Amino acid sequence: QVQLVESGGGLVQPGGSLRLSCAASGSISSMYAMGWYRQAPEKQREWVATIWAGDATNYADSVKGRFTISRDNAKNTVYLQMNSLKAEDTAVYHCNGRPALGAPLMPWGQGTQVTVSS
Q1: How far is CA 38 from CA 5, 29, 73, in A?
Q2: What DSSP state is assigned to residue 69?
Q3: What is the mean pLDDT of residues 39-62?
Q4: Could you give the CA distance from residue 75 to residue 34 in angstroms, rounded to a whole number?
Q5: Exposed (0-12), middle (13-18) or buried (19+): which is 7, by Cβ within 10 Å?
Q6: What φ, ψ does residue 6 adopt, rounded to 5°?
């Protein structure tokens, strides 16, 4: 089963940028979809962005225009470029994916903490 390891989080000031990485232990080239999710303290995990097999993308309204999801199939890695960060973006960020339409998500990794604060 594919394992996912997120990295790239940290402390950043409002308006700053970070790039998150999600390294998969197996191939992601045939994955139906890969996505990023986040969970803020005392809140439910929420969806952030998805990249589909054909490289089409979708974003939550709260991050549209500020975040960009991309994938490098050769490196089995999915990225999340985050610009114009806000305090409300503070959360633990996780990636996940579905190998096929209707398939369940894979086991969650540990995630990477993003803290936006001055």
Answers
A1: 14, 23, 23
A2: E
A3: 95
A4: 14
A5: middle
A6: -95, 150
